[in-house]
Amino acid sequence: MSPDTNNNVGGTEEHDDEQEEDEDEPVFKFSTITIGPGVRKNNENSKNIPAEFSCIAVHEKFLVIGKPTGEIIITDHLGNIISQFQIKAHTYPVNAISIDDNGEFIGSCCQEGKVKISGLLNRTDDQLITFNRPIRAVCLDPNFAKTKMFVTGDTSLILNERGTLYGHKRTPLFEFNGGLIHTLRWKETLIAFANDKGVGIYDLRARRLIGFEETEGQKELPRGVYPSRISWNDPTTLAIACAKAIKIISITTEAGSEHQANAPRKHLNTTMSFKIEFYACGLTSVNRDLVVFGIEDFSIAAGTSDPSLTVLVSKGKVYEEKAHDPFRMHNDELTSPFQFQIEYLPDEQCFFILSPYDIVKAERRDYDDHIEYLINKKRFEDAIKAFENPPSPNEKPKRYNPQTIYLAYVKSLMEANQKEKAVELFPRVYTTSKEWEEQILTFIQRNELDIIVSKIPTSKPQLDAAIYEKVLSTYLMQKKFEELKELLIQWPLNIYNLTSIDQLIRLQMDDERTAKALLECSAVIAEKQGNVSKTLDIYLKMGNAQAFQLIERKNLHAEILPYIEKLMSINRKTTLDMLINHMDKLPVRSVYNVLQKSPRNLHAYLDGVFSKNPNDSRDFHTAQVSLYADYEPEKLLGFLRKAGNYNLQEALATCEIKNLYRETVFLYGRAGNGPVALQIILEQLHDIEEAIKFCRETGSEQLWTRLIEQSVGKPEFIRGLLNHAGSDINLQKLIDSIGTDLRIPGLRDSLCKIMQDFNIQMSLSECCRKIIVHDCLALRKKTVTLLQSGYLVTDTDVCAKCHSPIYSSDIQFNPPISVFFCLHVFHTKCIEANPGVCGVCSTSSLFGSY
């Protein structure tokens, strides 16, 4: 929102709609200043209510308030009357008050034409001056204590000074034809004034009027309803507000006149002019920014409406609206726009807004107010974030903490019937046992215990035992046995009376279904009481799988032997895993004795033990053969191959009875009875490939011969031999045994395959031969190269025969030496008898024994 010389301060209608949907956070907070019993808080719309105040002036030390009765009261900034400084100045309504910068003198004027100068520290300079007409404005020189000068305004601007012999001197500065002057503002040597026609600035040093700017109010209302409001931005800039218009006037010095002996000539220039969307009834400047008190409308019948405080921030050549905060004033419907007044207190950075019936203090909202705003808007998560992340360490909240924010959040959620979400915040809100107990009992009364139960604390704070028992008994009466059991498991045993709850549970076991559900609760209580055996008995009686968890949790493995069958009936796999994983506490022999009456379970147990470690069940391998044959014959052959501690004859008998031919073949093969095994393969299994595999594993030539003999006359067997045993048998012999009249399906393909295999074998042989020849030649070449290379002989080497040094560096000519391929070194003269043989490496030593 940027005002310029032609546009309004404010946005478009579209922006206004958006602002209604998402109202901006206010900048100010407003509070009423109560002046003793003076401010009436009566909401009656009676027009007979008398006005309380007529004008106000502020100082860093106090407030000075004029009343329609002519009385002037002095208060602190909170409205407390300072009785020793009260002034009885006038008998008619006080029109204006002015305070010097030091706060030592107060000037006031009234309707009967009197001006009173009152000293607060001493009365020697008090003055009471009477004029011939009503005085609407008075302004002390900011340095009044020294100059004793002040100005008044009626139809003329009059300078008042001390005369000779303590007399009074009046000097008319300028005469106006635009009505009475109602506002005066003194800045250094410049005096700004306003009347019903406009605003002028007088240069006291030059004793001349710099200029006058006419202003326009609301045309349909009488002149003076919206008087001009003025405020100095700085010593050369004046802000003017009248009705819906704002002007910024700058004072410039005429070029070339700065160095004149007399005061330089100055001029007024309008640097900025723009419209606003409300009626200005008060104006003050804060570091070139403007704070405007305004109303939406005024009528003689309805008075003023919707007062607000607006901040316009200076942005170079434009002003932008930063805040527009509406508020309420007492009896504003009885107030006219010209009766409002706003004053700024720089030290406290606050504003005082006066009407005939009210004084409102506007302060900038602090960080606590920001959090309060978010809470009121039900933006609790934003409020929590704001608390945790203040903009600076100096702006930490003082009135709010996380608990108070969460408490407001909880109340809001409860009102919105979002109880589940509210309960999630209970631990952050309620910190005492009494608070928790009240909430729990409330939820129980509403039959909503399920919502809060998960958040009930068991420590920090720990509640009274009666509350925990109340919760448990409530679930018991409501027959919510699962919820009851979960609480019994989760809650520690020392926060309530276990025995009393157990008794209540037993009284409720009125039918089988209820009894079964409550037995679990009794089991939990028994475990908490340390009676683990009772807990296990209850779970076993119920056939409840929690028995396994109890055994693991309490390490009861050594005590479950009598209950193995019952545990198997509950969950056989879990029981088997437990038995197998804890063989140190449950020996295999002990478990075997218990499970003998249940062969299927015994087989499953021994199978698991064998799978983990075959040696652990070696004492029962013979029994396992029979068990595998009865319950898992498909695993028997694998067992027979791995196991090594079973009775071969009993195993053979079992396999023959059960017609387990492959297992029988394996056992006969292990027993060394290959012909019988081969006979079973051929006659019972009719599996030529299995027969070939068996013969290949045994490697017996007799079995191969027997296999060929058994295959004569059987085309399928012959073809199988041709296809799979070509490299293991004499094919010529097999082919010769085939009768000329025997038809063998696929014979041609088998013979072709034999020829192809032969060709491949010959090709591989040739390739291998070439590779070997190549490698031999390469190795020979490497050996010859090594043998032809020299051998390093040092003076530390000794002759292998005489053990003397081979040579000496001290002798110029050393005797010749010989080095053999075995790297033994000799003096040549030491091996003259047999120079081509190493005497050390030869089988018969040439040098005799060493």
UniProtKB/TrEMBL annotation:
This is Vps41 beta-propeller domain-containing protein. SMART domains: CLH (SM00299). InterPro entries: ARM-type_fold, Beta-prop_Vps41, Clathrin_H-chain/VPS_repeat, TPR-like_helical_dom_sf, Vps41/Vps8, WD40/YVTN_repeat-like_dom_sf, WD40_repeat_dom_sf. Pfam families: Beta-prop_Vps41, TPR_Vps41. The keyword Transcription does not apply. Residues 53-363 form the Vps41 beta-propeller domain. It comes from Rotaria socialis. Residues 1-10 have a biased composition (Polar residues). Residues 1-27 are annotated as: Disordered. Keywords: Protein transport, Transport. GO terms for biological process: cellular response to starvation; endosomal vesicle fusion; macroautophagy; protein targeting to vacuole. Residues 14-25 have a biased composition (Acidic residues). Transmembrane segments: none annotated. One of its GO terms (cellular component) is HOPS complex. The keyword Protein transport applies. CHCR repeats lie at residues 576-720.
